[in-house]
Design a protein that fits this description.
The complex is a heterodimer of chains A (488) and B (83). Chain A is built from 19 helices and 2 strands. With 488 residues, chain A is mainly alpha-helical. Chain A has one domain. In chain A, helix 3 runs antiparallel to helix 4, helix 3 packs antiparallel against helix 18 (448-466) and helix 12 (299-320) runs antiparallel to helix 17. The longest helix of chain A is centred in the middle third of the chain and has 36 residues, at 148-183. Chain B is mostly helical and 83 residues long. In chain B, 69% of the residues lie in helices and 0% in strands. Classes of the chains: A mainly alpha (488), B mainly alpha (83). The A-B interface holds A 59, 125-126, 128-129, 132-133, 135-136, 139-140, 143, 146-149, 151-156, 158-159, 162-163, 166, 169-170, 173, 176-177, 180, 185, 187, 190, 232-233, 236-237, 292, 295-298, 301 and B 18, 21-22, 25-26, 29, 32-33, 36-38, 40-41, 43-44, 47-48, 50-51, 54-55, 58-59, 62, 65-66, 69-70, 75, 78-81, 83.
């Protein structure tokens, strides 16, 4: 089953290359991502019912944590492809991009999906290859609009992330070295399950160095400050659905890599070391994102810095640890993926309408766009963590875990930063949503495909804020067991 | 559009430094890995080499893009996105 999950995006990409017309490419893209989602959900249910599954001589495997990542990737990926139908249609009609660019977008979108799914199912060292592949396949998504600024953003993204991931390779090699001393040479030293089983015999000093390299390396990809500098550039220059893929799915994959090594390190050297590093990077990300959000003049960059903030919160959750903190962090990964993609869809609609990314030039969205306007306000409330939306639930869980684990100062600082971000963020949202639209902006909304995709996400945002289905709850609890290495 | 490489630009480009830096880091680490652990699994090593190769290729394509748009290959000109 895992093989089909990886095969479908690659096949879709190949068919997209062969397709001739615009409609063929778009239909193929939608069909491909629907098939990916169906196979992905089948694997998730399979893992949920029968436990870990492996394939291809143990090179590929899926346990509860990877199944949870696959759930996020395939679900959000599907919604993004629905949104792409409307968004790309508009761009083609207004001659912003041509057929060749559309083809590049769809091919690399599906290759990106392939590499991200590979992150979920790769076993140990293969993880590094998969994460490097996500960088390479998502870089062309940033240069869909061939402008000076987007080329600059893509170059920065490639260089910074390649260097970061090279550092992560060193961490991976050190982990492998530590494992070889215990397990001996050979393929056995590669699988997560074997590594966790013997992690308490690893050389602690070696594992400490390895984890520092891992958190700096994959942290570059996950958007931790001070390695986040590529992130706002790439997010503001990519087309809206591409940005949704980068922010909703890609940074979760990097987070997944960090947490896999966090589990091993916590077992080898005790939980304090890696948890403290995660809390430190989490607080740093929150703290540095705050002034950039308050002073921001570009709304896509505003949402990008909000991604830095939320990755910081996820890192805090994993750092606080325990069943509650890990549960909150995992739930926050899902909620952030859904809500942030939603926000970038809103941003895409507004950019197509107003033709600018400056906050000052956008006014009266509620009046000019009947559906996107209210969604901007609701999404703004949701992303800053107001009740009754889903992010509120996961944030309050993480903060409760922090207080329960007696991390008083980090929790207090996190609350302070969140309040400042809420105020700064809503100042911008107010300016954009209210008052009258500028002259020359006609009344009318985005296409039905775009709005449909946004409504699907809105359902998740609202429903998960008041009620978590028992299946999802049990799924996350199993992933918590994997992350905390309990019950194995 | 016709693209021409200006030889004067090649000598002072920083993109060569960027790319060779990444290559040296990656392959240096691999050599370190081989001396530490007597080599990793073959498929993993192949994957790492393939990724490095693909990274350099994609960066090469990007340099063409930079040259076409900015009419220089000097990556020091890329400084507009800030804040």
């Amino acid at each position: 089953m895992i093989r089909y999950l990886l095969l479908i995006p690659v096949l879709t990409a190949i068919f997209c290359i062969l397709a001739r017309t615009e409609n063929q490419i778009k239909t193929l893209g939608l069909v491909g991502s629907t098939a990916t989602m169906i196979v992905g959900l089948t694997i998730v249910i399979d893992v949920f019912r029968h436990g870990t599954i492996t394939s291809w001589e143990n090179m590929l495997f899926a346990d509860a944590f990877s199944a949870y990542l696959i759930l996020i990737i395939s679900l959000v990926g599907f919604v993004i492809s629905v949104y792409s139908m409307g968004y790309m249609d508009h761009e083609i009609k207004h001659d912003v991009i041509d057929l060749k660019r559309l083809k590049i977008y769809y091919v690399f979108y599906h290759l990106g999906m392939f590499s991200m799914l590979l992150v979920g199912v790769a076993n140990d060292l293969g993880l590094w290859i998969a994460i490097e592949m996500t960088t390479l396949f998502s870089a062309p998504l940033i240069v869909i609009y061939t402008k000076r600024s987007s080329i600059e953003a893509a170059w920065k993204y490639l260089i910074i992330c390649s260097v970061g991931i090279t550092l992560a390779l060193f961490g991976t090699i050190l982990t492998y070295y530590a494992a070889v001393q215990v397990l001996g040479e050979g393929a056995d030293a590669l699988s997560w399950t074997n590594l966790i089983g013997v992690a308490d015999q690893f050389d602690p000093t070696l594992m400490k160095i390895a984890f520092v390299f891992i958190i700096v390396g994959y942290g570059t990809k996950a958007g931790f400050t001070p390695m986040h500098t590529w992130l706002p550039d790439a997010y503001s220059e990519a087309p809206a659905p591409g940005t949704a893929l980068l922010s909703g799915v890609l940074i979760n994959c990097a987070m997944y890599g960090i947490i896999r090594f966090h589990t091993i390190t916590a077992k080898a050297v005790g939980p304090e070391f890696s948890s403290n590093l995660l809390i430190m990077f989490g607080l740093l990300s929150l703290g540095i994102a705050t002034p950039f959000i308050i002073m921001q003049s570009d709304y896509k960059r505003l949402f990008a810095y909000s991604s830095v903030e939320h990755m910081g919160i996820v890192a805090l959750g994993f750092g606080f640890g325990g069943p509650l903190g890990t549960f909150g962090a995992l739930l926050h990964m899902f909620n952030h993926a859904v809500t942030k993609s939603f926000m970038f869809f809103v941003a895409g609609n507004i950019r197509q309408k107003y033709g600018t990314k400056k906050i000052d030039s956008v006014t009266g969205v509620v009046k000019s766009m009947r559906y996107t306007g209210p969604m901007l306000v609701l999404g703004g409330l949701a992303i800053t963590g107001s009740p009754p939306f889903s992010i509120f639930i996961s944030e309050i869980t993480i903060l409760t875990a922090g207080l329960m684990q007696a991390h008083i100062i980090p929790t207090a600082l996190a609350i302070m930063f969140m309040i400042m971000i809420f105020a700064g963020f809503f100042n911008h949202i107010n300016k954009m949503a209210l008052s009258t639209p500028p002259e020359g902006v006609t009344v009318g909304d985005a296409s039905k495909w775009s709005l449909g995709a946004m409504i699907i996400l809105m359902v998740f945002i609202v429903v998960l804020g008041v009620y978590i289905p028992s299946q999802l709850y049990e799924m996350i609890m199993k992933a918590v067991d994997v992350v905390n290495a309990t019950g194995m | 559009m016709k693209t021409q490489l200006n030889p004067a630009n090649i000598t002072d480009t920083t993109n060569i430094a960027d790319r060779s830096g990444i290559l040296i880091m990656g392959y240096g680490l691999l050599l370190g890995a081989i001396s530490l652990t007597y080599g990793m699994l073959l498929i993993v090593e192949l994957g790492i080499f393939f990724d490095s190769l693909a990274a350099i290729l994609i960066m090469g394509i990007m340099v063409f893009g930079i040259n076409r748009t900015f009419e220089t290959m000097d990556t020091n000109t890329l400084y507009t996105l800030i804040g």
